[in-house]
Design goal:
The protein has 267 residues and is mainly alpha-helical. Helix content is 79%, strand content 1%. The chain contains 10 helices and 2 strands. It has a two-stranded antiparallel sheet. The relative contact order is 0.21.
Length: 267
């Protein structure tokens, strides 16, 4: 078996795992995509200066596709609160853009310190998620949606993480949603959140581009991941609809713990 074939199979498998988790929990799947992208981008000659934006660009593309594909059944079944989607998305985009600008024009930001603070926030989120008593479901108010969107945007801008892993617990705690409602709404919002950054990275020319690239998007690497995502994201959504709320909570808690461990090891 050739090395190229082995590499493509590994990329497809990572896409399958990320897509399934995305559909199951309503998160982006970046925690799966980022490490595999880091390895294969370096292997394919991406230099140090271009590495981080290349990882983000290709991860955003995979997240965008998983969110779109996974949300289609919910839109068809009218399970998405459209007004809430628009309010949260708009606020998150504004919060993320303002945070990015402030980071770029100042010297106040310390990634290591913030990641430790973010770990504390995730621990709090973990506890609240496990102790949360399921409601019968609710409609997210405009004010709460704007607040959750701003928090999500700011945290995502500061840490490079966030998205679904922040929105789902906040929707449950302050929007009185069930975890399945929260996951469904989160999955629909994520593509909107990543789209501006995705366009930016696609239109920006890296210092040293490699064959088969559009801006920072490296097609020979990201296409196999997308194939895997498309194969499994719907299965993740179907699993979420079938299993109990308690099971979803337990899996989501495990995902939060995995995220905390990744943050700690990357500080």
């Amino acid at each position: 078996m050739s090395q190229t074939l082995i590499d493509n199979l590994l990329l497809i498998c990572s896409g399958c795992l990320g897509g399934y988790i995305s559909g199951l929990l309503g998160v982006g799947g970046g925690i799966i995509f980022v490490p595999i992208l880091d390895y294969f981008l370096i292997k394919n000659g991406i230099n140090t200066h271009d590495l981080v934006p290349s990882i983000l660009a290709n991860s955003f593309f995979a997240i965008f596709v998983s969110g779109i594909k996974g949300s289609i059944p919910a839109f068809k079944s009218n399970l998405i609160q459209i007004r809430a989607l628009l309010f949260v998305s708009a606020a998150a985009i504004v919060g993320g853009l303002i945070t990015t600008v402030l980071i770029n024009i100042g010297t106040w930001y310390s990634p290591s310190i913030f990641k430790l603070i973010f770990c504390g926030l995730l621990l709090f989120t973990l506890i609240k998620t496990m102790l949360h008593i399921e409601s019968t479901g609710g409609v997210l108010s405009d004010k709460v949606g704007l607040g959750i969107g701003l928090i999500t945007g700011v945290i995502a801008g500061l840490s490079g993480l966030g998205g679904g892993i922040i929105m789902v617990p906040l929707f449950m705690m302050f929007g009185h949603m069930t975890i399945k409602q929260a996951s469904t709404l989160s999955l629909a919002i994520i593509p909107i959140l990543v789209f501006p950054n995705l366009v930016y990275y696609a239109l920006t020319q890296p210092q040293h581009s490699i064959n088969g690239s559009t801006g920072y998007l490296v097609w020979p690497i990201v296409i196999p991941i997308i194939i895997g995502v498309l194969l499994t994201v719907k299965a993740g959504v179907n699993t979420s609809n079938k299993v109990s709320t308690k099971t979803i909570k337990a899996i989501f808690a495990g995902f939060i713990i995995l995220t905390i461990l990744r943050i700690i090891t990357s500080v």
